[in-house]
Design brief:
A 4-stranded antiparallel beta sheet has the order 1-2-3-4. The protein contains 4 helices and 4 strands. By secondary structure, it is α+β, with helices and mostly antiparallel strands. The longest helix is centred in the last third of the chain and has 30 residues. It has a single domain, classed as Class I glutamine amidotransferase (GATase) domain (Rossmann fold), CATH 3.40.50.
């Protein structure tokens, strides 16, 4: 995913590399809400935005745990869109296992920055 110029200045996403990698599992996208600022995009769709100064929306899954990802991948046939786009669990499963620690670190960092920003006295 690529951070937008606004994303590079954002207090939550800004510390990420512009070309960060995160777990994605979605078959729909959300349009940029009125008044929102786009923060990150992938080649497929808008991945994150901020509305005002204290509300963020993310399409990727910074909260994903290894067990969740494993279940989604193993049960991909229950998701017609995953079948349609050709999810290959023999490729995605091992790739996710190799990358899940980094995905979790990214999610923990986002959460930590959000908690710091939302704590009393932070503005």
């Amino acid at each position: 995913m690529e951070l937008t110029p606004e994303g590079r200045r954002d207090p939550i996403l800004g510390p990420l590399r512009s070309g960060f990698e995160a777990f994605q599992w979605h078959s729909y996208e959300f349009p940029l809400p009125d008044g929102a600022v786009p923060l990150a995009r992938s080649e497929v769709c808008l991945q994150a935005c901020r509305i005002g100064e204290r509300a963020w929306a993310m399409q990727f899954h910074p909260e994903v745990r290894a067990a969740d990802a494993r279940h989604w991948i193993e049960d991909y046939r229950a998701d017609p869109d995953a079948v349609r786009i050709g999810i290959d669990p023999k490729v995605l499963g091992p790739e996710t296992e190799r990358k899940i620690a980094a995905f979790n670190e990214l999610g923990h960092g986002l959460c930590r920055r959000w908690l710091e920003l939302s704590s009393p006295g932070s503005g």
